[in-house]
Amino acid sequence: MTEIDYYELLEVSRDADKSVIKKAYRKMAMKYHPDKNPGDSEAEESFKAVNEAYQVLSDQEKRAIYDRHGKAGLEGHGQQRGGFSGGFDDLGSVFEEMFGSSFGGGGSRRQRKSYNYNLDVAVEVRLEFNEAIFGCKKDIKYHYKTACKSCKGTGAKDGKLSTCSTCAGQGQVHARQGFMTFAQTCPTCQGSGQAASASCKKCNGTGYDEVKDNFKVDIPEGVNDGMRIRVSNKGNIAPDGTRGDLYLEVSVKEDSHFVRHDDDIYYEAPIFFTQVALGGKITIPGLRGELELEIPAGAKDKQQFTFKNEGVKSVQGYGKGNLVVQIKIEYPKKLDNEQKELLEKLQESFGVESKPHETSFEGMFEKAKKWFS
Ligand SMILES: [Zn+2]
Ligand SMILES: [Zn+2]
User: Fold this and answer.
1) Smallest-distance ligand from the CA of 194
2) Angle at alpha carbon of residue 151, lines to 235 and 239, rounded to 5°
3) Residue 199: nearest ligand to its CA?
């Protein structure tokens, strides 16, 4: 068995400081983690090796011994051949610190409870565009769970639980990955250490009954798509009577004209080209009634006009958003003979003759021709 230098394994220099080593280890451990390389025994070996390297190089004392005497010097210093004995807890906490408890499921110990369901409930509430902006009353129809009376939420026949055979009552099972052992919540008893030897017939072993309920709720002005509204004490009920919360997950339908971005509202106002040429006031729709838009003569296509505080009222109470109107200049698609004549007359009145001649625009054509020839 060849031995690779710990510093080389982590790809750090021999004088690297603690934070550099930690960073390098994190990178390598992520790269070779068995979860990312299922069935790859080479990656598993590398993973073992970088863990070993980190255990030594992150410990000042061990690192000093290693620097002076190499791996052989570490024997007898809590270091045993073929891995570490009793070092799992240490490593587990390093892992948790670095990757959070989501990694490998290690360390996340659930609270022991005698029932099998979560107390919080979520239901989707679909709102029309305007209902979200102005608030509304909604009828919420949903189901909540209440502990089965005959088994007191345990799901076991007569409520009798015995020691879970999967985890021997520990609430956790250990999964080996390479030389490392990860603790995971027992899938049979969800960490309680107690499981049913026979299922309750009333609830088919689920531990709960479902109750249909409905109530009216005030949806506040200004809610938006993706928000969650908490209704306290409307969730599932535990055997001891504790009740969870109900979360309303708001989804808002889009509108065909108005576009909402946070508390601002955008829309496009079609303006006829003559209106743009003449300028002046036009009436446009706002969220709370009609608004007057002053179009400056010669306004440009896609020009935006902002009406302060005409947007959505902030649900958090930060005032109101803006209404932004973008104009879209519209031209006639068809002209009858009379309109054509009128437009030609108008054009002539500006000194632009119907037949093109040397204008500055034509000069541009000549210039461009020279560029390409
Ligand atoms: Zn039951
Ligand atoms: Zn168990």
Assistant:
1) 2
2) 30
3) 1
